[in-house]
TrEMBL record:
The keyword tRNA-binding does not apply. This is ABC transporter permease. GO terms for cellular component: plasma membrane. Signal peptide: none annotated. It is found in: Cell membrane. PANTHER family: MEMBRANE COMPONENT OF ABC TRANSPORTER YHHJ-RELATED, MULTIDRUG ABC TRANSPORTER PERMEASE YBHS-RELATED. It is a multi-pass membrane protein. Residues 20-321 form the ABC-2 type transporter transmembrane domain. Keywords: Cell membrane, Membrane, Transmembrane, Transmembrane helix. It comes from the Bacteria. One of its GO terms (molecular function) is ABC-type transporter activity. It holds the Pfam family ABC2_membrane_3.
């Protein structure tokens, strides 16, 4: 245990000594501060609804609290409005407690959660419950959601990059070979190198959420998704360290990793669900889904455990494929 924390302490000191690593640590927080000045207010109008004018006026008024509305006469007129270029959600009332949501089908996956949460709040019997749920679950800009989740994912990935650059430094100084002559085991070395990759994402994630005023979420779910996502990030960090002979090569490999991260995240939020099967192989795709759903307060524990399972399973597969290379280089 002492050996592991000695490695962690040395890596922490090294990270703050190198300007590049300080930049990697701070950039997610700087981006969060910048985003805070540009995202719409949490209480601002963020959504558009095409609503049947025959619905109860009280319900129509409640939808005005969540966005702009346009009134139409019947299903066909609503469908015609929904089919236009901009994102508009059609709403009809089947009876007192049942609503029909009309969507074109090519919207972002997250869009379907918005009307569900609004309708759920409207169906509550007490006004107090409506206010509580809508403030937490629905009255939040999608720009804020996607901005927060992308910055948090960046912080998680960058924590793995720090692990990789610390390994590169060990290789350049020749200390990895010297460690083989000490009582330190390979498990001590791997776990010691990984500690910073677990601690830093948790700290930065909650700093980012605090800056963006988005702490009204399930803390436990956020920790679980962040920790499981950190595993794949740490593994990628080890691979950067293994395949990079110096920091220049490390930066090049980091850029390749960021391309993978960007493709996984953009695909998760922009591709229709029917096309997202092409991304199932990427652990970062599941991380993106998990972060978005937790931040939007649409996830339950079954969802979180499902996302975590896929992250862990795919991370294990990647590790088994690369295990020999890691072992021959570091152990």
């Amino acid at each position: 245990m002492n050996r592991m924390f000695s490695i962690f302490k040395r890596d922490l000191i090294s990270s703050f000594r190198e300007f590049l690593l300080i930049y990697i640590i701070l950039i997610p927080i700087i981006l969060a501060i910048a985003l805070r000045f540009f995202i719409p207010s949490i209480n601002s109008v963020s959504f558009k609804f095409a609503i049947d004018k025959n619905m109860d006026n009280k319900i129509i008024e409640q939808f005005k609290d969540y966005g702009s509305i346009e009134l139409f006469d019947g299903r066909e007129e609503i469908k015609g409005r929904v089919k236009k270029v901009d994102d508009v959600i059609g709403i009809m009332q089947k009876d007192k407690d049942n609503f029909i949501v009309i969507m074109e089908g090519n919207e972002k996956e997250s869009s379907k959660f918005i009307p569900q949460q609004i309708i759920r709040s409207i169906n509550k019997k007490s006004n107090e419950s409506i206010v509580k749920i809508s403030n937490i679950e629905t009255k939040i800009s999608l720009v804020a959601v996607y901005g927060a989740s992308s910055i948090i994912l960046m912080a998680i990935v960058f924590s793995g990059v720090i692990v990789g650059f610390n390994i590169i430094e060990e290789k350049e100084l020749g200390t990895i070979g010297a460690l083989n002559t000490t009582p330190m085991t390979s498990i001590d070395f791997i776990l010691g190198k990984s500690i910073i990759g677990f601690i830093l994402p948790i700290i930065e994630s909650f700093i980012i959420l605090w800056i963006l005023n988005m702490m009204s979420l399930n803390i436990g779910m956020m920790i679980v998704i962040t920790l499981t996502s950190s595993l794949i990030s740490i593994l990628f960090g080890f691979l950067i360290g293994v395949f990079s002979s110096n920091q220049i090569a490390g930066v090049a490999n980091m850029k390749l990793l960021l391309i993978l991260v960007s493709a996984s995240y953009v695909g998760a939020i922009l591709l229709p669900k029917s096309k997202q099967g092409f991304l199932y192989w990427s652990p970062l795709y599941w991380s993106s889904l998990g972060l978005n759903s937790v931040i939007m307060n649409t996830a339950n524990w079954n969802d979180v455990l499902n996302y975590s399972f896929w992250i862990l399973a795919l991370t294990l597969v990647i590790f088994l494929v690369c295990r020999t290379k890691i072992k021959n280089t570091l152990i």
